């Protein structure tokens, strides 16, 4: 049976297309936070199979975008969503919905972060008029 840490690293690794240990290295001086992120968040909650991984990522980016001011986390989860097959247009829709329910400033922040991710991944968006 896999430990929470092993499950968490695998789940995080799938999302970030890595071995998942980057967060452990970044939080080496904060082992309790690292345990909370890897073992609990990814090892218990985000590894559950109740939601499809794409749906889970859409819910995650929606939650983060609506809170605002969470650039590092939102950037990781926007990129992670793309890594697991969420379409760029679906993430743009999340930004639009954020404007309605959380406010325009938070949506503008989310849009800027998403554009950074698109640029880093060399994703070109063709905007079509409705």
From TrEMBL:
Which species does this protein come from?
Answer: Sneathiella sedimenti
Q: From the Swiss-Prot or TrEMBL record, give the protein name.
A: Carboxymuconolactone decarboxylase family protein
Q: Which InterPro entries match?
A: 4CMD/NDH-1_regulator, AhpD-like, CMD-like
The domain of life is Bacteria
Q: Where is the Carboxymuconolactone decarboxylase-like domain?
A: 32-116
């Amino acid at each position: 049976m896999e430990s929470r840490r092993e499950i968490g690293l695998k789940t995080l690794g799938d999302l970030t297309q890595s071995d998942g240990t980057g967060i452990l290295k970044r939080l080496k001086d904060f082992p309790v936070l690292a345990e909370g992120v890897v073992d609990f968040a990814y090892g218990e909650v985000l590894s559950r199979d109740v939601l499809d991984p794409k749906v889970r990522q859409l819910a995650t980016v929606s939650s983060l975008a609506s809170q605002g001011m969470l650039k590092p986390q939102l950037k990781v989860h926007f990129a992670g969503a793309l890594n697991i097959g969420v379409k760029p247009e679906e993430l743009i829709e999340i930004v639009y919905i954020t404007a309605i329910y959380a406010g325009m400033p938070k949506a503008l922040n989310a849009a800027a972060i998403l554009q950074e991710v698109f640029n880093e991944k060399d994703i070109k968006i063709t905007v079509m008029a409705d």
